[in-house]
Amino acid sequence: SGSIYLLGEITSNDHTKKTALLTLESVALTNLFTTGLKEIVGRARPRQSEQVTGDSEATLFDSFSGWHSFPSLHTSQAFSVATVMAMQYRDVVWVPYIAYGIAALTGYARLQGEQHWLEDVLCGALHGHLVTKTVVSNHENQKLLLLPMMRKDAAGLQFSMRF
What is the DSSP letter of 100? Predict the structure, then answer.
C-alpha cells in the first residue's frame, strides 16, 4: 500500500492514491475479521492434526486453542488486495486475471506447504473478497463507515450508517 501510494504521489495520480488507501483499509479489516475467526474456530493445521491423531485426513477443532488454520490469512489477504486491484482497474482487461491469478497461487502455495486444508483456503479467498467488495462499494456509495476503535482496555470497530 505504501509503495502504491508513493507511486500515486510521485505521478500526481489521485486514483492510484485512492487504490492504496482502499488496499490498506481492506487488508486491515480482512486481517481483523480473519484473526477473530481463527481464534473462534480453532482448527488445527494438517500437520498438527496428523501429529495429534496419526491420521493425515483428520481435522481437529478447539476454540481458543492456538490452532489457527481456518480461514487462511495469507489467502484472505491476497484476495483482498486482488479484489481492490480488480475493482479499481476494471477498465484494464488483464488486471483482474493477473490479480486473482496471483491470489490463487498464494492459496495453492498454502496447500502445497501443508499449512491449510482446502476449505481454509477457499473460505479465506471468499472472506477476503467479500470484505473488500464491501469496503470498496461502501466508499463508492458512502453509506457505511467502519472505524477502528482502540482504548486502553479494549479494541474493536465503530459502525456508522447513513440512510
Answer: H
Q: What is the pTM of this model?
A: 0.81
Cell 481492506 sits at which residue?
26
Which tens digit of pLDDT belongs to each residue from 124-139? 999 999 999 998 888 7
Sign, Cα dihedral of 83, 107, 127, 30? negative
CB neighbour burial string for 144-157, b if at least 16 within 10 angstroms, e if fewer: eebeeeeeeeeeee
Concatenated DSSP letters of 59-81: --B-TTSS---SS-HHHHHHHHH
Return d(Cα 29, Cα 135) in angstroms, integer: 9
Phi and psi, residue 150, nearest 5°:
-130, 130
